[in-house]
Amino acid sequence: MSSSRQAKRGVPAKQDLEAMSVFRYELRKFLRVSEEISNAAGITTLQYQLLLHVRGFEGRQWATVGELAERLQAAPNGTAALVSRCESAGLVTRKPDPADRRQVQVHLTPKGERCLLKLAAEHKAHYGSFGWVFGEANE
C-alpha cells in the first residue's frame, strides 16, 4: 500500500486498536452466547437469524428470500436452502407475493413466532453494552 493511501485512511492509533479490540471481543462474546441460546432451543444460529430478519423488516411481518440473503450476507441460493430447512422444521412458510408473482414472501408460522420471541428475549438480555440497539442511553 502506498504511503499516500495510508495517509488518506489514517494509520490507527493505539487507542483505535484498543477500541477495535474491545469491540471485536464483545462481539465474539455475544456471538458465542447466541450460538449457545440457539443450540439449546434446537435450532442453528442462522435459523434464529433468519427468523429475526423475517420479522425485522419495518412495517411488515415477512421478507423475500433476496432480502433475507442481503440481511444474512449470504448467497440467495444458500438462503433459499436455509428457508427450506426452516420450512421443514415448521418455522416458516412461503407465500407467493400478490403484487409480484416472481417474488416469494417468507412468513413465520405460529411455531416460528413462539421460537423467535423466546430466543429474542434471551438474546436481548445479553446485549448489555449493545444497549444502543434498543435506543437506550449509556449509563
Describe the overall structure.
- The chain is mostly helical and 139 residues long.
- It has one domain (13-131): Orthogonal Bundle (Arc Repressor Mutant, subunit A), CATH 1.10.10.10.
- It is 59% helix and 9% strand.
- The chain has a 3-stranded antiparallel beta sheet with strand order 1-3-2.
- Strand 2 (92-96) and strand 3 form a beta hairpin.
- Helix 4 packs across helix 5 (76-88).
- The longest helix has 27 residues, at 14-40.
- The chain is globular and about 55 Å long.
- Residues 1-139 form the HTH marR-type domain.
- InterPro entries: HTH_MarR-typ, MarR/SlyA-like, WH-like_DNA-bd_sf, WH_DNA-bd_sf.
- GO terms for molecular function: DNA-binding transcription factor activity.
- This is Transcriptional regulator, MarR family.
- It comes from Paraburkholderia phymatum (strain DSM 17167 / CIP 108236 / LMG 21445 / STM815).
Helix/strand layout:
Layout: H1 3-9, H2 14-40, H3 45-55, E1 62-64, H4 65-72, H5 76-88, E2 92-96, E3 104-108, H6 110-125
Antiparallel strand pairs: 1-3, 2-3
Domain HTH marR-type: 1-139
Pfam families: MarR_2 (PF12802)
InterPro entries: HTH_MarR-typ, MarR/SlyA-like, WH-like_DNA-bd_sf, WH_DNA-bd_sf
Average pLDDT: 88
Distance between the termini: 41 Å
What is the N-to-C succession of helices and strands?
A: HHHEHHEEH
Sheet-strand content, in percent, reads: 5-15%
What's the tally of helices?
6
Tally the beta strands. 3
User: Major β-sheet, in short?
Assistant: 3 strands, antiparallel
Query: Which strand order do you get reading across the main beta sheet?
Result: 1-3-2
- For this structure, what is the CATH homologous superfamily? Winged helix-like DNA-binding domain superfamily/Winged helix DNA-binding domain
> What is the architecture at the second tier of CATH?
Orthogonal Bundle
Instruction: Report the uncertain regions.
Output: none
Radius of gyration: 19 Å
The outline comes out as globular
What's the CATH topology name? Arc Repressor Mutant, subunit A
Organism: Paraburkholderia phymatum (strain DSM 17167 / CIP 108236 / LMG 21445 / STM815) (Burkholderia phymatum)
GO molecular function: DNA-binding transcription factor activity
InterPro entries: HTH_MarR-typ (IPR000835), MarR/SlyA-like (IPR039422), WH-like_DNA-bd_sf (IPR036388), WH_DNA-bd_sf (IPR036390)
Protein name: Transcriptional regulator, MarR family
